[in-house]
Amino acid sequence: MVNAGDRAPDFSLESDGGKRVGLADFQGKTVVLYFYPKDDTPGCTREAQAFSAALDAFAEAGAVVLGVSRDSVDRHRKFRDKYDLGVTLLSDPDLVAHNAYGAYGEKTMYGKKVMGTIRSTFIIGPDREVKHAFSGVKVDGHADAVLALVRGGGAPEAPPARRAATTSAAKAPAKKAAGKAPAKPAAKPAAKPR
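RESULT FIELD:
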């Protein structure tokens, strides 16, 4: 995967607007490049809607937002029109950009290992350096966290993938504590019959 500090790989992909788009088209701007699995699915729709809702704020911060999936341009247009999306959607059916950024590979879905798009986001500075890289993104709150970084507000508490791991780790001790809790109430009834 491309990491923070790396030079962002260029690409040339067809957009929902019918023209080819690459990093060279955005000289002097920050580019938010996000990879998502499939148009018109619940998580991907929420992610596209969240980025679309924040487009003016991204523009004020000097950034553009580009969404990339394997879907065809025609499917992108239907997705865009159905949800009135404002983000530019790029078609990468041959996985050229996916592979260049490390956004395609083995992942777990419904308990099974499969090959597919790894939901990822890259914040690319005007100098074409990757400023932030997120892999295994959790959709809810992600667009806001990315916007905060673009505005220079510092890193979110934890990148989305790490946040998920932290949440799981935090739940594990709580479950253990919950498992011990029944022992304490059992002791209290024993004390009552004095």
